[in-house]
Design goal:
This is Catalase. InterPro entries: Catalase, Catalase_AS, Catalase_clade2, Catalase_clade2_helical, Catalase_core, Catalase_haem_BS, Catalase_immune_responsive, Catalase_large_C. It catalyses: 2 H2O2 = O2 + 2 H2O. The chain is an alpha/beta fold. The chain has 18 helices and 18 strands. The N and C termini lie far apart (about 55 Å). The chain binds CIS-heme D hydroxychlorin gamma-spirolactone.
């Protein structure tokens, strides 16, 4: 944890050795116009530090953003686990959470279509526990030996290093089409889950089955879920995500930091699905297979505690970049399962961090340190910080008593789940992992028509970028196994016939699961941290603007006034309204909703501004809530986002009324913003003006 922070402001400038520096502007030279001198140790120290500032980026999940917070359990969970932090409802366990994209480099855009990492480090009183999850509850592959192949295929292609942070290319889909086990994951990645509106508006999942172990040593399977408590689960429109990639590549990073700075702390509930080991076989799929979910309707998700993120990191590098998560960071009461993907992860994390963080002592970096004392016989190595006293660096020892002691499980020592293991040594996939399509069909059938349409469009886009026809063909053959209608809709745009289905095991039938639909499961409560644009021009009705703004601000939204000129606009009553941004510098894609106040001159000026017209048309296309007061409806209908007969006509996500009724219209507008997107408006195209 960031226990060793330092503030440089106002301090005397020194070298790394504490030497006070008199001149930080000029190298040491032989005469004012002479060559620099090698003896300038202050220059060399500064330049050496700079030259070595970068460390290798993460081989996956390179781009991320993080925050501090705490986790608190609702009630003791002793009937399932002896983990201390899950048994003390009074304890607030500090957490550090890093969200990330997977495929892009450190400098890539936040809004790429991708899985998002959701890694939580709990600094518990029994040592650090890491829940290293994603925002999607399944994975592409079943066995860790395929992970390097998956990542190579997804990353930019090896010859030209193109494309950056995108799976819309041949090698990814070549691999995927040859790995039918990835089909379920692909359905999720083609859904709006892979283009989240915000890190605050994502679910998180531990993915694998882990184990809970109670005080008697009884072990049960557990799947972990994070469900947003106050922000809902929302996505962007694909067109918007693409544009944001250029206009604000830091969109998610900024959103998280801004929300926390503004006191709109994101909250998640930790939920668990617990399955008795004896019941696991009855589920009809293998709990050790990371390409499967347990439908919530089969085993409910039981909320057990709450996580709040309430503090931004002080220093990106020291905290967000240097944090090192590991699925093997476990505490008594939680253990791994035999899932072959998880088993491989148990090796990979420390291994990669040895390179990334330069040696075996990265647990001593402040952000990675346990909050409890650490005592063992591990010694030395690069970057060792701890000064271990005495001559004993082995165990057992008899000299210099008392010796270091093991801790029996009954007194808090870690003991692995006593799972009987036997078998013939072999390299083979279990037949129980063989059904690659039934849960992909379950996911497809659980989506609303709008969500299905987005999946179809994503597949059309991604496969449309694939140049090798045989790869597209093979993907279509796999999609037929998910749903023939889906395959036909994708095939139509690809201009290819629907091929026969690829081989498969017999399908299992699942009842659709409403919990899998972002739209169905949403229970929007708050608009805290949402961004609302107000379009204003000279002659604007300031009273309506201010009344709506006040209501939005008190609901926690951020409101920015945009115009065609910076400074202030003169309002209809002769006052002035300060302008926050130019319309061209803050495009509609960075906002969640748009409000246009009344005022005849303002509406007329906006009508004449191509940028203002484009702004509302684009917001409309992306299904965003729009509110118009008074004469604003002239502008909105001229822009083509209202039917010609406007006021009085209510379309989903459009709030209209006269300028004097701003305060009474505000609740409807706020409710529309909480819903987030109004796809049912028939969104894509604007109404002919
Ligand atoms: Fe992984 C990073 C999540 C499979 C190997 N992984 C990493 C991070 C997350 C995940 C969130 C970033 C952590 C951070 O913010 O620093 N990984 C997952 C999930 C998986 C998964 C949910 C499947 C269920 N990962 C997976 C496999 C392997 C790895 C199968 C290898 C056998 N993952 C790594 C890694 C990374 C990593 C190479 C890169 C950087 C790091 O560990 O610290 O070890």
């Amino acid at each position: 944890m960031a226990s060793e922070t330092t503030v440089d402001a106002g301090q005397q400038l020194t070298s790394n050795q504490g030497l006070k520096i008199a001149d930080n502007q000029n190298t040491l030279k032989a005469g004012v116009r002479g060559p620099s001198l090698l003896e300038d140790q202050l220059f060399r120290e500064k330049m050496t530090a700079f030259d070595h500032e970068r460390i290798p980026e993460r081989v996956v999940h390179a781009r991320g953003a993080a925050a501090h917070g705490y986790f608190q359990v609702y009630e003791p969970m002793s009937r399932w686990t002896r983990a201390g932090f899950l048994n003390d409802p009074r304890a607030r366990t500090p957490v550090f959470v890093r969200f990330s994209t997977v495929a892009g480099s450190r400098g890539s855009a936040d809004t790429a279509r991708d899985v998002r990492g959701f890694a939580v480090k709990f600094y518990t009183q029994e040592g650090n526990f890491d829940l290293v999850g994603n925002n999607i509850p399944v994975f592409f592959i079943q066995d860790a030996i395929k992970f390097p192949d998956l990542v190579h295929a997804a990353k930019p292609e090896a010859d030209k290093e193109i494309p950056q942070a995108s799976t819309a290319h041949d090698t990814f889909w070549d691999f995927i089409s040859l790995m039918p086990e990835s089909t379920h994951m692909i359905m999720w990645v083609m859904s709006d889950r892979a283009i989240p509106r915000s890190y605050r508006m994502m679910e998180g999942f531990g993915v694998h089955s882990f184990r809970f172990i109670d005080a008697r040593g009884t072990s049960r399977f557990v799947k972990f879920h994070w469900k947003p408590l106050n922000n809902g689960v929302h996505g962007l429109a694909w067109d918007e995500a693409l544009k944001l990639g250029g206009m604000d590549p830091d969109f998610h990073r900024r959103d998280l930091a801004d929300a926390i700075d503004a006191g709109a702390f994101p909250e998640w509930e930790l939920g668990v699905q617990v399955v008795e080991e004896a019941d696991a076989e009855r589920l009809g799929f293998d709990l050790l297979d990371a390409t499967k979910i347990i439908p919530e309707e089969l085993v409910p998700v039981r909320p057990i505690g709450k996580m709040v993120l309430n503090r931004n990191p002080d220093n990106y590098f020291a905290e967000t970049e240097q944090v090192a998560y590991h699925v093997g960071n476990l505490v008594p009461g939680i253990d791994v399962s035999e899932d072959p993907l998880l088993q491989g992860r148990m090796f990979s994390y420390v291994d990669t961090q040895l390179t990334r963080l330069g040696g075996p002592n990265f647990h001593e970096i402040p952000i990675n340190r346990a909050v409890v004392p650490v005592h063992n016989m591990n010694r030395d190595g690069f970057h060792r910080q701890t000064i271990s006293k005495g001559r004993i660096n082995y165990e057992p020892s008899s000299i210099d008593a008392p010796a270091i002691k093991e801790v029996p499980a009954a007194q808090g020592g870690f003991a692995s789940a006593a799972v009987p293991v036997s078998g013939t040594k072999l390299r083979k996939r279990s037949e129980s992992f063989g059904d690659h399509y039934s849960q992909a069909t379950l996911f497809w059938q659980s989506q609303t028509p709008v969500e299905q349409q987005h999946i179809v469009e994503a597949l059309q886009f991604e496969l449309g970028k694939v140049a090798v026809p045989a790869v597209r063909q093979r993907m279509l053959a796999n999609l037929v196994n998910v749903d023939t209608g889906l395959a036909a809709r994708v095939a139509e745009v690809l201009g290819q016939p629907v091929p026969p289905a690829s081989p498969r095991t017999p399908a299992r039938r699942y009842a659709p699961s409403p919990a899998l639909s972002m739209i169905r499961r949403n229970n929007p409560k708050s608009i805290a941290g949402r961004q609302v644009a107000v379009l204003a021009a000279p002659g604007v009705d300031a009273a309506g603007l201010e009344a709506m703004k006040a209501a939005l601000l008190s609901a926690g939204a951020k409101v920015k006034v945009l115009s065609t000129r910076l400074g202030a606009v003169r309002d209809a009553a002769g006052g002035s309204v300060p302008v926050d941004h130019l319309i061209v510098t803050m495009p509609s894609v960075v906002f969640d909703a748009v409000m246009v106040p009344g005022g005849a001159a303002s509406a007329a000026a906006l009508k004449g501004s191509a940028d203002a017209v484009h702004f509302v048309r684009e917001a409309f296309k992306h299904a965003k809530p729009i509110a118009g007061l008074g004469e604003a409806s002239d502008f909105l209908s001229a822009a083509g986002v209202l039917p010609a007969q406007a006021p009085g006509t209510r379309r989903p996500g459009i709030t209209l009324g006269d300028a004097a009724s701003a305060a009474t219209l505000a609740p409807a507008f706020i409710a529309d913003i909480a819903v987030h997107r109004h796809w049912d408006r028939g969104g894509k195209d604007v109404v002919a003006a």
